[in-house]
């Protein structure tokens, strides 16, 4: 196994982006109604983090078949450290109240592409 920081340096040396982000897999721990009840304050928390530039991406996950939504979600943060990312996840109302638990990992973004289209007259943006 390679130490994380060593791998990150190797990725940078080969020309990869090597953007370090933090990924939270948030999974239900209580009944669906408990998760649903917590949703408005969770979404407000996410909105505040988005405005601060901390929240990169977030949204629900399907079940393994892709046919149902079971209340799990994926959240990606920009943070300065694992400890900072952990505090962000712990402060999420879904996790504070125990409606969901979470697993936190570092994620090194190396490859891929993102397209953004902005309508100048409408102010609408589309990410693909």
Distance between the termini: 34 Å
Q: Which structural category do the helix and sheet elements fall into?
A: alpha+beta
Largest sheet: 4 strands, antiparallel
Radius of gyration: 17 Å
Poorly predicted sequence stretches spanning 5 or more consecutive residues: none
Q: What overall form do the CA principal axes indicate?
A: globular
Amount of helix: 25-40%
Number of helices: 4
Q: How many strands in all?
A: 6
Look at the structure and give the mean pLDDT. 95
Care to describe what's here?
The chain is α+β, with helices and mostly antiparallel strands and 128 residues long. Helices cover 35% and strands 34% of the residues. It is globular and about 50 Å long. The strands form 2 sheets. A 4-stranded antiparallel beta sheet has the order 2-3-1-4. A two-stranded antiparallel sheet has the order 5-6.
Task: Summarize this structure as a short list of keywords or feature phrases.
globular; 4 helices; single chain; two-stranded antiparallel sheet; 34% strand; 128 residues; alpha+beta
Question: Topology, please?
Answer:
Blueprint: H1 4-13, E1 19-28, H2 32-52, E2 55-62, E3 69-77, H3 82-91, H4 93-96, E4 100-109, E5 116-118, E6 125-127
Antiparallel strand pairs: 1-3, 1-4, 2-3, 5-6
What's a concise summary of this model?
With 128 residues, the protein is of the alpha+beta class. The protein is built from four helices and six strands, in the order αβαββααβββ. It has a four-stranded antiparallel β-sheet. Strands 5-6 form a two-stranded antiparallel sheet.
């Amino acid at each position: 196994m390679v130490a994380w920081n060593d791998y990150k340096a190797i990725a940078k040396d080969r020309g990869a982006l090597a953007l370090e982000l933090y990924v939270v897999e948030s999974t239900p721990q209580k009944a669906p109604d408990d998760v649903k009840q917590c949703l408005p304050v969770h979404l407000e928390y996410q909105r505040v983090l988005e405005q601060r530039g901390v929240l990169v991406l977030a949204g629900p996950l399907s079940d393994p078949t892709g046919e149902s939504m079971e209340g799990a979600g994926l959240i990606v943060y920009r943070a300065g450290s694992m400890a900072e990312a952990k505090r962000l996840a712990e402060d999420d109302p879904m996790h504070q109240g125990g409606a969901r638990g979470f697993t936190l990992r570092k994620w090194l973004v190396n490859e891929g592409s993102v397209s953004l289209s902005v309508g100048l007259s409408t102010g609408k943006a589309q990410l693909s």
